[in-house]
Amino acid sequence: MTKWVYTFGDGTAEGEASMKNLLGGKGANLAEMSRVGVPVPPGFTITTEVCTYYYENNHTYPVELKDQVMAALHGIEEKMGRKFGDETNPLLFSVRSGARVSMPGMMDTVLNLGLNDKTVLGLAARSGNEKFAYDSYRRFIQMYGDVVMGVHSSKFEAVLDEVRETNGYKFDNQMTVEQLKDVVEKFKDICAKDGHPLPQDPMEQLWGGIGAVFKSWMVDRAIYYRKLNNIPGDWGTAVNVQTMVFGNSGDNSATGVCFSRDPATGENYFYGEYLKNAQGEDVVAGIRTPQPMTIFAKEKGNIDLPAMEEEFPELYKQLADIRAKLEAHYKDMQDMEFTIQDGKLWMLQTRNGKRTGTAALKIAVDMVREGLIDKRMAVMRVEAGQLDQLLHPMFDKKAKRESFARGLPASPGAAVGQIVFSAEDAEKAVHEGKKVVLVRIETSPEDIAGMHVSQGILTARGGMTSHAAVVARGMGKPCVSGVADLRIDYDGKFLKAGDVILKEGDMISIDGTTGEVMAGALPLVLPEMTGDFGEFMTWVDEIRTLGVRTNAETPLDAKTARGFGAEGIGLCRTEHMFFDPARINHMRQMILANTEADRRAALDKLLPYQRQDFIDLFTIMEGLPVTIRFLDPPLHEFLPNKREEQVEIAQALGVPVEEIAARTAKLHEANPMLGHRGCRLGVTYPEIYEMQAQAVFEAAVSVIKSTGKAIVPEIMIPLVGTKKELDLMKAAVVKMADMVMKQSGTTFEYHVGTMIELPRAAITADKIAETAEFFSFGTNDLTQTTLGMSRDDAGAFLPEYVAKGIYNADPFASLDQEGVGALVEIAVQKGKATRPNIKLGICGEHGGDPETIDFCHRVGLTYVSCSPYRVPIARLAAAQAAVRNAK
Amino acid sequence: MTKWVYTFGDGTAEGEASMKNLLGGKGANLAEMSRVGVPVPPGFTITTEVCTYYYENNHTYPVELKDQVMAALHGIEEKMGRKFGDETNPLLFSVRSGARVSMPGMMDTVLNLGLNDKTVLGLAARSGNEKFAYDSYRRFIQMYGDVVMGVHSSKFEAVLDEVRETNGYKFDNQMTVEQLKDVVEKFKDICAKDGHPLPQDPMEQLWGGIGAVFKSWMVDRAIYYRKLNNIPGDWGTAVNVQTMVFGNSGDNSATGVCFSRDPATGENYFYGEYLKNAQGEDVVAGIRTPQPMTIFAKEKGNIDLPAMEEEFPELYKQLADIRAKLEAHYKDMQDMEFTIQDGKLWMLQTRNGKRTGTAALKIAVDMVREGLIDKRMAVMRVEAGQLDQLLHPMFDKKAKRESFARGLPASPGAAVGQIVFSAEDAEKAVHEGKKVVLVRIETSPEDIAGMHVSQGILTARGGMTSHAAVVARGMGKPCVSGVADLRIDYDGKFLKAGDVILKEGDMISIDGTTGEVMAGALPLVLPEMTGDFGEFMTWVDEIRTLGVRTNAETPLDAKTARGFGAEGIGLCRTEHMFFDPARINHMRQMILANTEADRRAALDKLLPYQRQDFIDLFTIMEGLPVTIRFLDPPLHEFLPNKREEQVEIAQALGVPVEEIAARTAKLHEANPMLGHRGCRLGVTYPEIYEMQAQAVFEAAVSVIKSTGKAIVPEIMIPLVGTKKELDLMKAAVVKMADMVMKQSGTTFEYHVGTMIELPRAAITADKIAETAEFFSFGTNDLTQTTLGMSRDDAGAFLPEYVAKGIYNADPFASLDQEGVGALVEIAVQKGKATRPNIKLGICGEHGGDPETIDFCHRVGLTYVSCSPYRVPIARLAAAQAAVRNAK
What we know:
The structure is a homodimer.
Chain A: E1 5-9, E2 12-13, H1 20-35, E3 43-46, H2 48-56, H3 65-80, E4 83-84, E5 90-91, E6 93-99, E7 109-113, H4 119-127, H5 130-147, H6 153-167, H7 177-193, H8 202-216, H9 220-229, E8 237-243, E9 254-259, E10 271-276, H10 280-285, E11 291-292, H11 295-300, H12 308-311, H13 313-330, E12 334-341, E13 344-352, H14 357-369, H15 375-380, H16 387-391, E14 394-395, E15 403-406, E16 408-411, E17 414-420, H17 423-431, E18 436-440, H18 448-453, E19 456-459, H19 467-475, E20 479-481, E21 487-489, E22 494-497, E23 500-503, E24 507-511, E25 516-519, E26 524-525, H20 531-543, E27 547-551, H21 555-563, E28 569-573, H22 581-592, H23 596-621, E29 626-629, H24 643-653, H25 657-667, H26 679-684, H27 686-707, E30 713-717, H28 723-744, E31 751-756, H29 759-763, H30 765-768, E32 774-777, H31 779-787, H32 798-803, H33 817-834, E33 839-842, H34 850-859, E34 863-866, H35 871-884
Parallel strand pairs in A: 4-5, 17-18, 18-19, 19-20, 27-28, 27-34, 28-29, 29-30, 30-31, 31-32, 32-33, 33-34
Antiparallel strand pairs in A: 1-2, 1-3, 3-8, 6-7, 6-8, 9-10, 9-12, 10-11, 12-13, 14-26, 15-25, 16-20, 17-24, 21-22, 22-23, 24-25
């Protein structure tokens, strides 16, 4: 028979901390606390499996549940020496949700369950505190009405408002017993009028509460929260039924929420708040100002209220011991709830506390120093994504923010500036000393210079991997993309979203971490970087086995990435080098050429530029590996579509505009992503790749000569689908290497490898590895082809796909391990079968995603490569993968 | 030691017929003929491995080759009692190429090798025929000069022309001895002046001849031929060195080429031609009119020349016996060459004869009746592709054709008509009783009606699987696509290619079988269909295990396909039904709708049309399976891009044109192939698929009621990448099925399955099969995604890819088995692992390709589905696959 119910309390428990999946986080920790001798009000947990059963069986429970609940309930009655529903000495319960991971405030809770018109009398008599009894009853009716019976809370609040107003009360605890009794009657009337009279039978109340918790798993806000946090819907929630203890039963009672260390800064002092004579939600709700835990905190915060340490010195000491005990037990910072009832301390909850990135880092480093955890555990304590907080400027959290539009958090960080609507305007304004935010419908490669000088980028279209998003992340610039509500009028130079209209020059603030867009200039704060950061990262580097490189093609990017600890360049996209104004017309001449000779003439002009690019990169990287991807995009990306631009270029190049228009039309493609690009350009125009190879090798020779360092270029051929393509391209590269060696009288090492970015390449990787010396998984394109999904177009349906759980996350942000990952695994196995020492990297956007990095570690890649600002995150994620997958 | 040389002749041979890969077709058959006792002039074969060696080792031979050739040569000298280079009784050789498969006229031959200024005297003395000797010598010099030394043939021809003219000769055999001697001297002078004096050393001549054959493997015309016929370049050619026998050594000598049956009609009589006192090339060259073999042929052909049966009755009888012997031995129609020298018959070659489709069919059927072969062998004797010849009208082969442009043979058959440049013009002209050929830069779905009424379609752009090509094949209409040289001026209403300009209304002829385009109206002939065809196809159906369905959505297509033996519909593309003028505006209304309610209102109007479509198909298919694919293309395909069309539609729909323009712009996609289409439409707009499901099920109920037949619709969800997508779509379908069953009071069976057309679907097929009751491999899209290659754009590089051997064939025409096929195999294995009885089909263009069909048989698919006109071909290919892969 399945065990659906687990009891706890009184120094024993059927469950334990490791049973989070079954008991939820709260239930598992209540059991664990019971086991280690912390005083916990007795109770029982109904497992998450009941929740799953409930949703799979048309909202019904397993048949055995009722008996198991009754048995557990009787056990509690025995322990407490009181009975549920007893009219003289009633046992009361709280009913709370508890999923595997904390979903704060997302699901429902009912307290004081078991009160009715008769038991309230018993409670009053027994406690000798009639006011407390009726206060508890009115709270119960409001919660139960709202949570279980769906009576709108505002109806109850209206009654309370009236009492407060009539009597000039500031706080609810100012109400008299008579007033509370009156409120109770009015609340019951409200329920009855709403068609939901309050059940007087405690058992009916209990099952109503249990049902409400299970139902709350599927309310919109819970679904939304899970979506935001990638929590699968089939995990379900547990229900915790626990003996009520009352922090509001008199002045010798209290309730509080505390952390074993400061969750904002990580400092090691007892952090928290409590309220005398109050129930838990009073602390959270902020109706009364809570008091600090310690004298230290009181002084630190300049607080004018007594600390618990002063008011309840004995109990404080007991609590401080528990704090120490639990932190030592869990070896992590604890977030605890406690209640003091009539001078007795009860712990209601403990869990690992949420914390800021700054705090996470400090706590981890401190705990290592304290000998509480080792370095391997420490690196697990900072979420890789949290490092972002340490790397980008942020809005001051204290500032009030009112967003008028929201898009995708495309590149983290905060930006404030004057609105400009074109890249040229951005450059002009910045030249005049202004700070600007570039607002575009979408961006294109021609906007890069303008993006570079802007504080941030805001686009109406495009997803997490749109041009704007990718380039912004690469630059470490905040970006909000895909703001669907945004209307941009380039001619009128204004933007509109809802009622808000902003003109060119108006201040705007964008939060690339949340996707919010605000009018005006919000205050910014600089990220806090402590000395611990550096030390922590040395541990990270000791632990990880996966290399971390960067995607970079400019000297600035390369320098930034090295500063962040990149161990080489994993992807240098050479085409980005051709968009420079000094070069693009040579590129266009090359494209317009009708003969190989004309193409070669134009390429000859590009050669010195390319060579200098590589000299710069090799010099900065000082012998670290540099992987250079040859020209990848379709040639039409270099030609303009608009007539006026065509005219301009025709004049610049001295050719008839019709020629440019005709070539542009001829190069037009229905699906450019699947078109004449990558090595297909190299196959049809070998001279392009020959020029690039020559530039790479001549640059290598130059830097070898000038620095004496060994420069070992890695040349990467894109979009390979067959071994034969790579054979042809490798032959061209080898030819140029031989030529440069001969001409320079210098020998050098180099490697030729390929992107694996087509399913065909993955599936025939054994053959391709006969020629390829390394693979780099281009997971952007591999995702597009494997899923048959254009990242430029997926915005129309992908949000709905994620909402409906078809994909757990945006597959362009976090690798689709089941599909794309399976192909990567096949390619790794096949590649290693042919060439056991083959170097394996990943250079798609996914290379900076912690979950993907864990995958990369597991399948045995050599390194990941990501944008410069993601490098520290990738290093940490790699270390965490090493710890997580050890043994 | 490797054996590089194999001898034959005189009743024995070192090789045999099965060694074609090593000895080439000719060499293997010469060996085989020797073995079975047919008189063959002794000789030896240098293996194809020498050719491979030659090209892999910088044009050198294996060291052992020389000794092995010398040994073989001495063996022949012994057998013949003559010596190579002997001045009194010289042995002469022919040197011929011979690849695994016949490449007629593609490679080089040298005859009479061993003649020089001295041996010619010996030949003259020994034969007593000085004229013959010098005639042989002058032939040798011309051949050797041309083939081995690269002296242009026209220089020799000029000398011969002068002799003919001066003396008024019609034929070369009118030349006198003195004239021949003079020619010989002049020929030697030509060689010497060209810098290539004729070698007098017979051994030098021999090695020159051998080298010339190996070199000829890589000349342009041979490479081109191999490319056309999918013959790998690394097969190489063998070289056959064989004792010369002379059909031109007097009136008791002759030479001939004959077939054991008529290769054009397949009739069983001795077909062929011979010439008295002539060498082989005289027969082929057509200088003299050859004579028939038999009196029967003489009378049949109304020929005024004596038959061999009359002139050489004894030798004829011997040859006829050999004909019977060889046909019985090879069990196939033979193509033979023979020579009579001084009254002795020698066989120079036999091979399975090439034949027309008509002949192939007749010979196969006759041979079964004769008990020579069984039915399984018979079905192997007709190339599946040849059946096309029996199904489409053709140009009269006797008519002279001069093509002015050439494109891709996109849909076979011949078409003649007046040129029109738009689909509307086509409809108008046909309405006026004209026959037209539609000429477009490329076609789009809006052109379908115009394509339907045209005789054929000619496009400047697009490959074998462009819209024009696919639709034309589906309609069984001839189509030539991708004529790169073609300039089309829609405004001026003319086309231009090279110097040729044709205007609207001018007659044009296109050959969809060859890709040729001709001005004017070429005469057409109807395909010959004999009664044998039907019988043959019953054998085909007995043997094959693979089902054959058709891709069809119109009643006409469905009827045509059933006539061709389709066993169901494997792909009914419902979107084609929405382009009908009566419906498209409802479709557009649906697309323009802003709410689900508005969409449902528009869909309600489409429902009756869809229902009737399915009623028609179910009625025609009489209970055969019908697989209906739900809406697949992106919605923007239904909206016009041009302003004037938008205006028109806005008026028709009564909405502002701006609304249409805005929606069109919003729906625009960068890569529509990877965009918001397939089941992604079903996920975001479930009401569309619900309407389609309702139409399918209501149609099924209607036909079940009207015919009493069991109609079992198969509903196919397109572009599925994850199980969850299919779960959602299947749930919607099941809901509608339940509703229709309830409303109609009828129960019916149905199946829900999916296309496997994304790599992700293939790689997760085990999971998808939990929901899918059948898979249909959509290999068009699976090829596009696996290869990352847009079929609309591949024209820019694919020809070069095929030319460079990166792909052996167009992967959109014949399945890329190594890449795409590997994914299909994975999906088959995974699908069967989950659901052992899962139905597996293929419905891409590849479903009609014989090589792909063989693959489908091997991997264990249930059926293939192809366009109606390919159905007989697919049936035959399926039977051949069964035979080929038996055991």
